[in-house]
Automatic annotation (TrEMBL):
Protein name (Swiss-Prot/TrEMBL): UDP-glucuronate decarboxylase
Annotated EC: 4.1.1.35
Any one GO biological process: UDP-D-xylose biosynthetic process
Organism the protein comes from: Gonapodya prolifera (strain JEL478)
Main location: cytoplasm
Amino acid sequence: MSAIYAAVRKLPNSKKKRVLVTGGAGFVGSHLVDRLMLMGHEVIVVDNLFTGSKRNIQHWLGHPHFELSRHDVVDPYMAEVDMIYHLACPASPPHYQYNPVKTVKTSVMGSINMLGLAKRVKARFLLTSTSEVYGDPLEHPQAESYWGHVNPIGPRACYDEGKRVAETLSYSYQKQSNVQVRVARIFNTFGPRMNENDGRVVSNFILQALRGQSITVFGDGSQTRSFQYVHDLVDGLIALMEGDFSDPVNLGNPEEYTIQNFAEIVRDIVGRDGVSIINLNATQDDPHQRKPDITRARKEIGWEPRFSMKQGIEETVSG
Ligand SMILES: NC(=O)c1ccc[n+]([C@@H]2O[C@H](COP(=O)([O-])OP(=O)(O)OC[C@H]3O[C@@H](n4cnc5c(N)ncnc54)[C@H](O)[C@@H]3O)[C@@H](O)[C@H]2O)c1
């Protein structure tokens, strides 16, 4: 505890920002909070703890720069802040499909509330959107100019369409009310503090392999994904927030793997004997290909991933 407190930079008041992180008790949010705290900023986390946990941020509870507010973003929130990182939203299919109406409300009303706050206090606003806005893409790799191929009434729609509306809201507030907005389209991300039972492929495979169970691949495993390590994502979110570029930016690792190949890599890194890979029926609306084109991120915010997927998996497994 004291070691991490000692690592917090002392910023002069002129450089210290008041930063609101919605969803800051979740997987990505808690890593972002760590970084912002270490940079010396003042951080308020707003989270209803639906999929997040106090455990993820407990090392900051009691720090004078840190505040946790248990609050649902569907209801308005007021605070004097300079920046808002708006992450609050369940992100894995079992969680966002558990109550699809609530997921849409979280995306739409939560974004309206946070954009309204940004407008009122003149804060810069960053939305964590998703590669899911591309749906099952007909273009590969996906650049930000691609409009997407989303089923508006499928089981994933509450999340995908919710985020698409959140993007629309962001740019509407920018046009109408001059709110400074940033939109990150995040591709699959993994790392320590991933929710163990969130049903996402990385946590599933690692847990199954660590428990010595068979790794279950849905479909024939030929569908592709790219996997980014959470520390790279945090670098990208901060670069985007602090930069001048306000169109959507993909943040992901363009190294592409088939799910079958990924399962083999996880099995080999975990190194437990007797772990086999079995194929089950494909899930509905599961995209066939996903790979970010990060040309824009490289050019506009000077960002690219530093960790390979294998390095990230090794750290996650050992962490
Ligand atoms: N992890 C990924 O691979 C990934 C990919 C694309 C986009 N994203 C986006 O990044 C953000 C964070 O994702 P994550 O992986 O950390 O998910 P997560 O589920 O771990 O974190 C989401 C956080 O939001 C909170 N939350 C949910 N609904 C809320 C509400 N109504 N009010 C207040 N808080 C609420 C949860 O309690 C949790 O702490 C999400 O917006 C997600 O859509 C993540």
